[in-house]
Design brief:
Length: about 1100
């Protein structure tokens, strides 16, 4: 766990706030000096900007810029933003592409004569088949210079570049192509995407936005970028009042269900009642909605087809034979009628004709079925007489398309799938594209050489006795995602097939690979589920898609298939220790409540890879508790780090490689489907600001709960069920129920939870007793009746966890043992203490534990016992503080009290400062702010102080844990016990890992005190103990202080005195000469000069 302390004991200067003049407000982009920390190096494709503004444009950013003025960019050192701190960028308008020197434009954008003519719109230019329009003769060309802190010219950064893409908040991306190198720079309103001291490559962080303009041509638009060219007093600049209310839904009851709906993509699914949904967000709205809905779905295309730049289409077939096309830009239209089978680019009619969707052309007749390869260039047809043939589609090269379906003819075929066929004798063949490389020819016009090649399709025998095929699973070797030198081959494996001897192969158009045998404890295993368990956000071809997980029919045991540089590009099967429950992005959720992904740390220097427990790759789900939450990481003023919006989320559709995020599906454990809109601050700053810093919308319900399940499976059986059971006897008992371990005991005092839920309860500071058992433990079986009788006799509610995988985490922070023997108990006293009782195998020991649990008032989700502690309030309605932060104040004051120091109070000014710092340390775990300033610059100038200090920490899950860690660190302890300090603020971010921050200052002294009720009289001591104190200092500012454990309470003649003990006296004070005397009905201030005597009595408050 990380801890960092900073102590500042000098007088802090108050920096004046810079006023904004009318001239500043009317400056254009070309007048302004832009701080370097608002500027980032970038890596982006210059050919993928969507000019329609419908689709997100994604790119990388960093802090190292190419030297565009170097003689050789390849060998030039990069310009580092860390060397430019305090300096400015300035943008200069040079003109438009068509008005500037032709030679310069060809040089700075690395184009030849013909491409220059294309940009100029010259009709004599040759247009290439795959030409994508980009820069035009009217595109604005700018140069970028660097100026020092005094705004003196330093050097040129970019001699000529275009404004390639403009985002909705006025941010923009420039692009030039000098010496063949793409030189991009990102200008943003945000200065905290990296901290000032970061030295990052241009591939360090994803950014995306919907371009409002591409290759900008309008100079009036450029004038207002990353700023405003209107006066702030202008009526046009005033935003409408915005109100948005977040909703938090209750937890679900009953047995959870998983994999209920068929999730097709990040925003598409088919429900159990065979209804297709596509969800998205309409412009101007915060919440997403259902964009398209199709009922009575009979078939659909598993893969999508690109129909225009940035737009894909899926086909959906209804039971009445109507074929619809639904595009990624939310357009839905009817494509055909009387359809029997749907495909990406084709369909089969009830008359047996296979037709092209685009042209309506019939390419084959008298057909039973057809299949298209994943990439759409190859199609195969199966005729009613059992004959098969294949050929190239209109998406391939014209000369091969014109030949028709003349390749790889085969008779006696019974089954056709994308990429393969199976014959009557159960022999499986894969489709093969044979690429024959020829010689080189020269183009006399350009002098360039090209290599010739020929293509041919054929069949290749994979296995006899085939029983099951998975035709839609993507799998590669490490570098398979790279295109071949011809640019036409697709080398990835796109399916799996298994035979009766439990051998499996992965197959594709160019490659095949044996996966070996599928066994479990010597039993032949038939695979029922294949799912991706690793997703890469790196460049194509680097560890992307080459790991899959497999689940057999007879169990929930998971095997992982790895095939990359870690295994010398040979298949390697590894076993996981935890059983499969449901897919999650990048892995699977196990029966212990945790998510697991493949550990592919390629930089670890070790070839050993394994399954690795993680919270979830979708960071808007809260660890193993499966709660969808809103994250506040910007300038929001919320008093808590997260809003827990939707409990009981079984899985989401979020994918690490879905760069644009946007609308996400959430499936709950009651089978209902929900949606939300994700707004990462790095890409949607304006929306996030409107939402008060929260980075997502509400969770919106799409479908109701259901007990049904989609009938769609990922495989095609090539033999009958009887044949399968004959070859795989273990599957006769059926697929295991996807549920947790059997309940250990049945009692109203016992509630069984997963290890993940137990860890969550601990992090939340709940008070509970946990019983941990194992299914195959003899002592767990022996003690079952004893434990049940004891909890019912003592009436103590407990949680139970059947921990067959040793994955319970929080327990190991509180035991010195190398191993624990079940059954064992864990007594958690909120966020105060945890005690582990190992190897509990006697009735006497069980009774002792239950009495201890009853004393502190444990609870489970069914019952709670009477609490022995009066619960106090905290001032969340008055200052920005949550229970974790209030707890830190309470425990810090305990430590100061024990060391005879005055108690600290919490002012609003320091809480506001900590609200800023808690978000900043998540981005940059450092005492330097992301903008390069010191941390105490977050404290308001109006808050008077002479001294300040900061402690930060990461990884602690409770208030007591973080205070303990700080107290065990010399630097942090010195800050906590510094007698110069009287005020403290606390910040907490409930992220994974959690982050904590403390800020201390000196105190102005108090002049009055009251309670949180405003009353000084109470009916009872218990009622008084619930309240907190409000102290008003000598500057008239209110501060707050907790009640807490371990304070001395003096009693004499019915008077109670709370505070710290002075030397040689029995007087108790809070701060600066005031003692607060608590009588049975009043709180009275008392001067330090009025000591009293009496007997001491220790009371837990």
């Amino acid at each position: 766990m990380a801890l960092v302390a900073l102590m500042l004991v000098s007088v802090l200067p108050i920096m004046p706030v810079r006023s904004t003049s009318a001239a500043d407000q009317t400056q254009t982009l070309f007048d302004r000096y832009i701080p370097v920390n608002q500027v980032y190096s970038a890596k982006a494709s210059s050919y993928s900007v969507d000019v329609s503004g419908k689709y997100s444009f994604s790119f990388f950013i960093g802090t190292r810029f190419r030297d565009e003025n170097a003689e050789s960019i390849m060998f030039a050192e990069e310009l580092k933003r860390t060397d430019m701190q305090g300096q400015f960028f300035k943008i200069n308008y040079k003109g438009t592409f068509g008005t500037l020197d032709k030679a310069d434009m060809m040089k700075y954008f690395d184009i030849d004569e013909n491409n220059y003519l294309l940009a100029m719109g010259d009709p004599s230019a040759t247009t290439y088949e795959n030409y994508s329009k980009w820069i035009t003769k009217d595109s604005i060309i700018i140069s970028i210079d660097l100026y020092d802190a005094e705004k003196n010219f330093v050097r040129n950064i970019s001699p000529a570049t275009a404004i390639m893409a403009v985002g909705p908040d006025g941010e923009f991306l420039t692009c030039s192509l000098i010496q063949g190198y793409r030189c991009c720079i990102y200008f943003s309103k945000q200065n905290n995407l990296f901290k000032a001291t970061d030295d990052k490559s241009s591939s360090s962080r994803y950014i995306y936005f919907k371009p409002q303009y591409a290759w900008l041509e309008d100079k009036s638009v450029a004038d207002g970028l990353i700023g405003s060219n209107q006066s702030e007093s202008s009526d046009d600049s005033k935003e409408e009042e915005f109100n948005y209310e977040y909703k938090q839904y209750p937890e679900l009851k009953g047995t959870p269900r998983y994999m209920t709906n068929n999730i097709l993509s990040v925003n598409e699914f088919i429900s159990p009642d065979n209804t297709y949904y596509q969800v998205g967000r309409k412009d101007g709205e915060i919440d997403p909605c259902v964009m398209n809905k199709i009922e009575n779905v009979a078939d659909y295309s598993e893969n999508v087809l690109t129909v225009s730049s940035g737009v894909t289409r899926r086909t959906v077939l209804t039971a009445d034979g109507t074929l619809y096309g639904v595009s990624s830009d939310y357009e839905m239209k009817k494509l055909a009628s009387d359809v029997k089978q749907a495909g990406m680019g084709h369909y089969l009619t009830n008359k047996g004709e296979v037709k092209e969707i685009n042209s309506g052309k019939t390419i084959a007749a008298d057909c039973k079925a057809f299949a298209e390869h994943r990439y759409g260039r190859v199609i195969g047809v199966l005729k009613n007489d059992g004959s098969f043939s294949m050929g190239y589609t209109y998406l391939g090269e014209q000369k091969y398309y014109e030949k028709g379906l003349v390749y790889a003819k085969k008779d006696n075929v019974t089954t056709i799938v994308p990429g393969g066929i199976c014959t009557k004798d159960k022999t499986f063949y894969r489709w093969v594209e044979d690429v024959r490389i020829g010689g080189y020819t020269m183009d006399p016009a350009t002098g360039s050489f090209s290599q010739s090649y020929t293509l041919e399709l054929k069949l290749n025998l994979v296995t006899k006795n085939a029983v099951r095929v998975f035709p839609y699973e993507y799998y590669t070797r490490q570098y398979d995602a790279y295109s071949s030198q011809t640019g036409t081959t697709e080398v990835a494996k796109t399916g799996f097939v298994e035979n009766a001897d439990r051998r499996m192969w992965a197959f594709g158009l160019q490659d095949i690979e044996s996966m070996g045998t599928m066994t479990k404890n010597g039993t032949k295993s038939l695979i029922r589920r294949i799912f991706p368990i690793y997703q890469s956000t790196k460049s194509p071809g680097f560890d992307n898609g080459n790991f899959v997980g497999m689940v057999p029919e007879e169990s929930n045991d998971v095997s992982m298939l790895i095939n990359n540089h870690c295994s010398d590009n040979r298949p390697n099967v590894l076993k996981s220790k935890t059983d499969y429950l449901t897919d999650v992005p990048g892995g699977y959720r196990a029966l212990d409540g945790y998510a697991y992904s493949f550990d592919n740390d390629v930089d670890a220097g070790s070839p050993i890879r394994s399954f690795k427990k993680k919270a979830t790759s979708f960071h808007y789900l809260n660890d193993s508790s499966e709660i969808f939450k809103a994250i506040n990481t910007t300038t929001g003023t919320g008093t808590i780090a997260n809003l827990y919006l939707l409990p009981n989320v079984a899985r989401s559709s979020y994918r690490m490689d879905n760069k644009s995020g946007n609308t996400i599906l959430l499936e709950r454990t009651d089978g209902s489907m929900w949606m939300t809109e994700i707004y990462p601050v790095a890409s949607a700053a304006a929306t996030v600001a409107k939402l008060g810093g929260w980075e997502c919308s509400n969770a919106i319900q799409i479908t109701k709960d259901t007990t049904k399940k989609t009938s769609t499976v990922d495989y095609v059986d090539l033999v009958s069920r009887n044949v399968l059971e004959k070859n795989f006897p273990a599957m006769k008992k059926g697929t295991p129920v996807e549920t947790d371990a059997a309940k250990y005991i049945t009692s109203k005092y016992y509630s069984q939870i997963t290890p993940g839920k137990a860890d969550q309860l601990s992090r939340e500071g709940k008070t509970f007793l946990l019983l941990v058992t194992k299914t195959d433990c003899s002592y767990s079986k022996k003690m079952k009746k004893t434990i049940k009788t004891a909890i019912e006799k003592q009436k103590v509610p407990i949680y139970g966890c059947v921990n067959n995988y040793s994955s319970l985490e929080f327990v190991w922070d509180y035991t010195k043992l190398d191993s624990l023997a079940t059954p064992y108990f864990v007594l958690v006293n909120g966020d105060k203490s945890v005690k582990v009782y190992n190897n509990v195998i006697t009735q006497k020991k069980v009774t002792t534990i239950l009495k201890a649990a009853k004393k502190i008032g444990v609870a489970n989700d069914k019952l709670s016992s009477a609490s022995a502690e009066v619960q106090s309030k905290y001032p969340s309605d008055k200052i920005s503080v949550d229970s974790y932060e209030w707890g830190v104040l309470k425990y810090i004051n305990q430590k100061r009290f024990a060391n005879r120091l005055s108690l600290l109070t919490m002012p609003d000014a320091l809480q506001n400062a900590c609200n800023i710092r808690e978000k900043e340390i998540v981005l940059s775990y450092d005492h330097t702010r992301p903008n390069g300033e010191k941390p105490y610059t977050t404290i308001s100038d109006s808050f008077e102080h002479k001294y300040a200090a900061e402690n930060i920490a990461s990884g602690q899950h409770s208030s007591t844990q973080v205070v303990t860690d700080w107290m065990n660190s010399e630097g942090h302890r010195a800050n906590i016990l510094n007698d110069k300090f009287g005020y403290m603020g606390v910040g907490y971010m409930n992220t994974n890992p959690p982050y904590w921050v403390q800020m201390f200052t000196d105190c102005a002294g108090y002049k009055s005190v009251t309670t949180s009720t405003g009353s000084m009289k109470f009916k009872s001591l218990a009622a008084m103990q619930k309240e907190y104190l409000i102290c008003v200092d000598n500057n008239g500012i209110g501060h707050f202080i907790t009640r807490h454990n371990g304070l001395y309470l003096y009693i004499f003649t019915g008077i109670y005195c709370l505070g710290r003990r002075m030397s040689n006296s029995k007087t108790f004070i809070i701060r600066n000469g005031w003692t607060y005397i608590f009588t049975k009905s009043n709180i009275l201030p008392m001067s330090i000069s009025s000591p009293f005597t009496g007997s001491r009595y220790t009371f837990t408050l």
